[in-house]
Amino acid sequence: MEKQRAPMAESLELQQAITRDTPETYVRKIVEKAGSSFIWAMRLLPPSRRHAMYGIYAFCRCVDDIADGPETEAQKHAKLEAWREEVEQLFAGTPKHPIMQALQPAKDSFNLPKAEFLAVIDGMEMDARASIRAPVREDFTLYCRRVAGAVGLLSIHAFGARGPAAEELAVVQGEALQITNILRDLWEDAARGRLYVPRDLLKQEGIEDTDPLTVLKHPNFTRVHAALCAEADRLFSRARELIAQSAGSSLRPARLMLEVYGRLLERVKETGWPHDENRITLRRAEKLWLVLRYGLI
């Protein structure tokens, strides 16, 4: 899932939400309000699959907002536990929250895996328990699998892609996108007391500290930054191989997101480290060109 910071206006208490919108309209408004790059890919899908992706995105957006919110750890845990109950109710056929009501048809039609919804929540629990600072490699891989790979696996079901290659793609591309987000958001995450860079990369450059701002200002962090970019490059290369092996158009949304984030990674590498604290982004014209090149043609 993309790590955006836009606040949500609606309550996340998970009691029966009061809204005049249909569940489908409710989730679509969340997607549109977030302004995510993912919306371009979603619009490539037929209506039923597009609505499924809107529901998946809205679910991820809401649990991510809890993890990034100002509440105490206990309050965040309680809200995430309430979302676990919402997942259980969805798979019992009795969803109450409009997001889960919007997901009901997709759950039935596209066999959305319950385990991956719960994995997303597990990933948000990792963020909510304490500020992540230079996780060991095992925890870093687990975190990416939960917050990104799980979203990818839900998405390929919504896309209609099947098979081992599609499943590997979901996890590999999810990690590539997540590492790109981490590289893009280094300063922003540091201001929140977080540092998602794997500890082994820091140690191999002689950086023992885990304080985010101290690490980012260390003279050797330039090499750490380059090493993490190289990891993302390898993942993008593998994802392109897997897409090339797949026939048909079901993975066209995945290909579009791959190219958008691949271009963003190139921008991160071109900018280098250190850079100022402004978030690195793609211009709207660049995104439109990528939509035309990989989405519509």
From TrEMBL:
Keywords: Transferase. One of its GO terms (biological process) is carotenoid biosynthetic process. GO terms for molecular function: geranylgeranyl diphosphate synthase activity; squalene synthase [NAD(P)H] activity. This is Presqualene diphosphate synthase HpnD. NCBIfam families: HpnD. PANTHER family: BIFUNCTIONAL LYCOPENE CYCLASE/PHYTOENE SYNTHASE. The keyword Transferase applies. Gene3D superfamilies: Farnesyl Diphosphate Synthase. Its EC number is 2.5.1.103.
